[in-house]
Design brief:
4 helices, mainly alpha, de novo design (two linked rop proteins), elongated
Length: 123
């Protein structure tokens, strides 16, 4: 078992994706920075924050599962915001496609880890 959430592969991926997503959001048109851009930054940040909060509560299995569900939900929310931006701003298509692929991979990792915790986690 990892001693710290920082050792979890899904946390490291989520953190790196947050940085990429945050930086990408700053390239959006100025009027979008406080609309979809802000929602995108918040949902992206929420993925890794919920992994952290869940891991810190790992002694309480149900809390751990709850926060992994929140992380997975935030991952899907982030993908949804990216899909909206892809339609609205096709000039960012290449970047958005890459981010969507990475969020899909992360979502699968969070899901698999949540299933592991449900079936095998001992408190």
């Amino acid at each position: 078992m990892a001693l710290s959430y920082r050792e979890l592969d899904m946390y490291q991926i989520a953190f790196d994706l947050f940085i990429k997503t945050h930086n990408f959001s700053l390239e959006l048109p100025k009027h979008e920075l406080y609309e979809l851009g802000s929602q995108l930054r918040r949902s992206s940040g929420s993925v890794n924050s919920n992994i952290v909060e869940g891991y810190v509560r790992k002694t309480y299995k149900n809390d751990f599962i709850k926060f992994l569900i929140y992380a997975h939900t935030s991952d899907d929310e982030t993908s949804n915001h990216l899909k909206k931006l892809q339609i609205l701003y096709p000039q960012f298509d290449k970047t958005i496609i890459e981010l969507l692929k990475e969020y899909d991979i992360l979502g699968a990792k969070i899901y698999k880890f949540k299933e592991y915790v449900i079936k095998s986690w001992k408190t």
